[in-house]
Write a structure and sequence with these properties.
globular, 12% strand, alpha+beta, 3-stranded antiparallel beta sheet, 3 helices, 94 residues
Length: 94
């Protein structure tokens, strides 16, 4: 796991929590990122572009990058939301 991705993802998750009037919960953050990494492993589409040589990046690092740039938002109530033109809501209960 890339520590820089983790640091940036936590910072963005804290910003998003404040924006929605929620408290940042590290356990919820971990669960949300793990769920998103699992979805990527199952073949869900990436929300960030693939760069040359990027085929070695772990699903966890991809999920952290998606959170860090605001493409994936982890919300209280067990939801992981994605932003963008292909926006979908991803349930944490799957």
């Amino acid at each position: 796991m890339n520590e820089e991705y983790l640091k940036n993802a936590i910072a963005m998750a804290k910003e998003n929590a404040a924006e929605f009037g929620e408290e940042f919960d590290i356990r919820l953050f971990i669960s949300g990122v793990a769920k998103r990494a699992s979805q990527l492993a199952q073949g869900y589409p990436r929300l960030i572009p693939m760069l040359p040589g990027d085929n070695q990046t772990s699903f966890l690092d991809i999920a952290l990058q998606e959170v860090a740039i605001g493409q994936v938002i982890i919300r209280h109530g067990g939801q992981v939301e994605t932003k963008g033109k292909d926006s979908t809501e991803i349930s944490m209960v799957d």
